[in-house]
Amino acid sequence: MDLRDFPVQVSISITENEMAASGHVKNIYYVRYFEQARLEYLKRLRFDEFKTKTGIGVILAQTICKYLKPLAYPDQIMVGARVKSMGKSSFVMEYIIVSEKIGLATTGEEVIVIYDYNTEKKADLPLLITEKIRNLEVAL
Length: 140
Hints:
Blueprint: E1 8-14, H1 27-45, H2 47-54, E2 56-67, E3 75-86, E4 90-99, E5 103-116, E6 121-122, H3 127-138
Antiparallel strand pairs: 1-3, 2-5, 3-4, 4-5, 5-6
């Protein structure tokens, strides 16, 4: 995996308060790093505007994180995000975390479900969002 394969990349500075007593970044922060990249991806899709107009948004259904090498303070990381696959009412995002110090540190995936906040039920993946995802992914 290479960062060049991910259309959205977020630079994050690891802070001292993210460290566990064992000398590496606490596990919860990896999920937060994924979240920051996911939010940037959704921002590029203008999903907030779409949700405001339609009531249709997203809910995180599942997170998988593969810890390859431990991250530690101080360090600068790049988190890459891309959509791996799309289904009828969900899509799978794939992530990569690359450290300036140690290289590839983490990979992960999340299942994102489309949700209608007006009816409080799962919804179909809107065609407009599907097209925006395809356009963003092709932009590589």
